Amino acid sequence: MTSNLLPILLLCSPLLFATAIAAAADLWYTDCPSNTNYTRGSAFQSNLDALLSSLPASTAASSGFTDNVTGAAPDQAFGLAQCRADVNASACLACLDGSVQRMAGAAGCPGQKDAMLIYDECLLRHSNASFFGTVDTSVGLYMWNPQNATQPQQFAAVLGTLMGNLTAKAAYESPRMFAAGSAAVPPFLHIYGMAQCTRDLAADDCNQCLASAVASIPQCCDGKQGGRVIYRTCFIRFEVYPFYNVQAAEAAMLPAPAPAPGDGPTINGGGDHSVPGSTGSKGRVTTGLLVSIPVAVTLLVLLLAAAYLCKKWSRKPRKLVQAASATGRGDDEEEEDMMSSESILYDLSTLRAATDNFSAENKLGEGGFGPVYKGTLQNGREIAVKRLSAASQQGLVEMKNEVVMLAKLQHRNLVRLLGCCIEEHERLLVYEFLSNNSLDKILFDPARQQLSWGLRHKIIEGIGRGLLYLHEDSRLTIIHRDLKASNILLDAGMNPKISDFGLAKLFNVDSSVGNTSRIAGTYGYMAPEYALHGIFSAKSDVYSYGVLVLEIVTGRRNTFTAQGSSGPSEDLLTYVWRHWSRGNVRQLLDSCPGEGRRPQEILNCIHVALLCVQEDPHLRPGMASVVVMLNSRSVTLPPPTVPAYALYGRAATAGMDGGPGPGARTHREPSLSEASVPDLQTWRSSISQ
To answer: Is 86 a catalytic residue?
Structure first.
């Protein structure tokens, strides 16, 4: 079966699934586009034969991955071979040898310029054009265990967290772009998962490929005890039993050892990546030996110079800190902590030059911390510089908090902190520049082009993944405490990035709830237990996320909108709940602006958001469950209870935005019986008719 005939190949037969896992060497998938024939005896065939004969041995000898090119244009042959990272060298070699033999046989892709074979333990791919470094999810293989999972909702939540964690590890932490692990589903069950990319991909591309695979789980394997999603450039698998070599998998995820003296540089994680006309590995090794001595000497000199400069630069700010702290404010310890974090110290002169001395023309906006300026470094890189204002109520505590937090966090849906500057009387934070500004500017500015529903849904999912990383998947447990539209920044691809960690709180492993006497954040987004009693947890962020989702869906601010010419005003939560509880689905759908609206997805997002803003924190779902619910059409969602509270009047802010404190009066929407809440499935049925 070829990819041009069936873009998504579904293998659903339990017998076929059982056979596939019974014999690791059995072929899973053959991809042979029929429009790429080559002539027998041609120059391309000679190059392809040479390529295929070299790939198994070089792959087994180079940590399980090789991409290579043989011949000269226009008859070049491009090839890639990879083994699963927990497979040993001998098994890898045997699997690839069998792949090469089958590739040329009748059961493979004889006479095809472009072909791919996928086995349980290895994959082999070749083409007459370069495909290296390109994400390819155009052809997918879905397989699943015929056994149903018990406690499907809990199983799905744990699975979502596990696979999200493995995705991040494979993309950003593992030298082999591979991760495996397990998670418990109380009381007795464990889920085992695995994720791997082809090692020619960049980290972000690997993350994108694996995220697509994880997002496909509800389509292929929802409610099943096991499943696999396999693309040309990545795959995932999960089961309720350990299907991989645990010790080998743990070893494969360890950082790569430092090269021994005299070793030449490696490419693509140790893969053999030759160029046309090369003389083979022997010639490259000889070259590496010839250049190793002068390279080592040069590196030593550079390291010594870098150590000297770092020591010199690190002393200068400390002297300035001590001078600035002579006022007795006690800020020196805060600044010492910032300079010991894992971020770069920028010179004040560099940032002044980049921002044209913080000119008004370069000002992007202003928040509670102070103004933010666009800058351009000498190398052409664009940056955003946040400048602490003298009147700021946040000060060095929040600045230190943000530096320490973001220096330890890395995720595609979190804004990236590049460094900071503490010189003279300036306190500056330097971020990556995001060209599309903040979400509130796009959502609520009538002069801007409206977001399509596809982009709105993409932003909702991206923010959810970022929060899930903060709460569960990062090496820290972070509660943001100020999630709102103005703290979501958008890059050139409209990917959302959570920003402003000045109020964030760090938890240890044994703690999940905190209490504070200082309420700081934005009313309207704050959970009632935090606004009234100072109690915050991950469920406080979940509440803020629910409000934010409703803003994104409806395009309305979480403030008060006119109900009618003679009726009272109402806030966003009251507006949505009024229509939801009365079954006025059409009104809710019509309130969603933008093109390409999908009623099923819109209602699902509203339902999930209402679950997030329930008054009882224990009733709100965790972010792992939220991410699963947003991506699954088959999960039955519980009915939401009445939203926590409704504010009659303009949404006020505390901390950064300066509004009334937690003693501000609130009025509750009149209680509605849960029995009056219509069945969402009935609504969906009426929409589809």
So the answer is: no
> What amino acid is encoded at 153 in this protein?
Q
- Distance of alpha carbon 689 from alpha carbon 685, whole angstroms: 6
User: 31: which strand partners?
Assistant: 116
Q: Are residues 74 and 149 in the same domain?
A: no
Strand duo 426-432 + 417-423: pairing: antiparallel
Q: Do 118 and 145 belong to one domain?
A: no
For residue 413, give both structure tokens: 């849906």
**Residues 625 and 545 sit within 8 Å (Cβ to Cβ):** no
Tell me which of 400 and 272 has the higher pLDDT. 400
In this prediction the pTM is 0.48
Q: How many CB atoms lie within 10 A of CB 686?
A: 13
Residues paired with 224 in a beta bridge? 148
Amino acid at 451: L
Indicate which residue of 482, 500, 571, 657 is catalytic. 482
Q: Rg for the chain (alpha carbons), in Å?
A: 28
**Residue 489: both structure tokens together:** 């920044």
Q: Considering 69, 100, 127, which residue would you say is the last residue of a domain? A: 127
Task: Please write the tens of the pLDDT for every residue from 245-297.
Answer: 998 999 888 875 554 444 443 333 333 333 333 333 333 333 333 334 444 54
CA–CA separation, 635 and 633 (whole Å)? 6
CA dist., res. 561 & res. 101, Å (int) = 69
88 in Cβ contact with 96 (< 8 Å): no
DSSP state of 667: B
Q: Number of folded domains in the chain?
A: 3
* Helical axes 680-688 vs 599-612, angle rounded to 10°: 160
- Rounded CA-CA distance 7/14 in Å is 21
Measured distance CA(438)–CA(432) in Å, rounded: 13
DSSP strand pairing (115-119 vs 122-127): antiparallel
Range of the structural domain that residue 676 is part of: 451-688
CA torsion angle 555 558 559 560 (round to 10): 70
